[in-house]
Amino acid sequence: MSALDRVLERLDNVRAQGDGHKASCPVLAHGQGNGDRNPSLSIGTDAEGNVLLKCFAGCENEAVVEALGLKMVDLFEHRNGSGYVREGGGGSHTPPKSRSTHQPSDPTTLENYAAYVRLPVEFLKDLGLAQIHYGGEPAVRMPYPDGSGEEVLLTRFRVSLTGKPKVKTKRGDKHRLYGLWKLEEARAAGYAFLIEGESDCQTLWFHGEPGVGIPGANGWKQEWASDLEGISRLYFVVEDEAGEACWEKLAATPEIRERLHRVELDGAKDVSELHKQDPEGFSGRLANA
Predict the structure, then answer these.
(1) Which residue has the higher pLDDT, 132 or 30?
(2) Which runs of consecutive H residues, i.e. helices, occur in the chain?
(3) What is the pTM (predicted TM-score) of this model?
(4) Which of 21, 139, 149, 206 could potentially form a cystine with 134 if both were Cys, beta carbons 3.0 to 4.6 Å apart?
(5) Contact, 164 vs 158, CB < 8 A?
(6) End-to-end CA distance of the chain
């Protein structure tokens, strides 16, 4: 089944419109809880067959996808390495192809970054990522919205795929946790993974896992513990020696010490590498870590 058919079969009041379709938005809160009486959800596809959604009443794509009983991964069709496709109606995924190596000289465009982390461009755009120029060179802007998702507290820039430094922070901005606007999802799930950096967070969210990013292995601040209130279990993924130092800082934080659990990944240095090795088996391997 194609990604488009997967979406259309779950929608009501579907009708063709131009090159795409229009349907009633499935989000329960749409129209202040009165529903979508005048269908306002636009459904289209890009050149690779990935589904593009837009609710003209302002519902977020993630809310639309959740209301359909799907995950963001279900919007993507495997054509040229930009996404996934479920085959034969089953639950398996065909992992996207990506370049085996990336050079520090490769321009840090959004498309190159997406290929490097093996995540679809449209998914990253939904998280607010955008291609810009930083210091005259291509870079990827990564905003850090607040808990409401409205105000940007911090902006970081991915300036290199593999070289150093990989990430720079906007002058004057103070570091915060990445994913504050998703913490309610973590509270509802009862757990969250604490990891270093943005790309690991993005990978977890792509697989429907709650994640919170610490900006740098040594970047944890005890004052951030208040952001994590209400999350029953916190799993910190220890990556390397720097990760050990971060683990010690976390374990020394009284507010989270009793909820903190240590995770070591088998055969992968971090969450992103686990995803690149086996997108299909990612969730199972993470659960068994």
Answers:
(1) 132
(2) 3-8, 61-67, 110-117, 121-126, 183-189, 198-206, 241-251, 254-257, 271-277, 282-287
(3) 0.69
(4) 139
(5) no
(6) 32
Q: What angle do CA 107, 110, 111 make, to 5 degrees?
A: 85
Cα separation, 93 vs 280, whole angstroms: 5
Task: Note whether 221 and 215 are within 8 A (CB).
Answer: no
Among 51-55, 64-68, 148-152, name the one with the lowest average pLDDT: 148-152
How much is the CA Rg of the chain, to the nearest whole Å? 19
- Token pair for residue 124? 């990253």
Residues recorded for the chain: 289
Which residue shows structure tokens 């959800």? Answer: 41
Residue 170 near residue 156 (C-beta atoms within 8 A): yes
Round to whole Å and give the CA distance between 233 and 196. 17
Domain 180-287: assigned CATH number: 3.40.1360.10
Domain ranges in the chain are 3-75, 110-169, 180-287
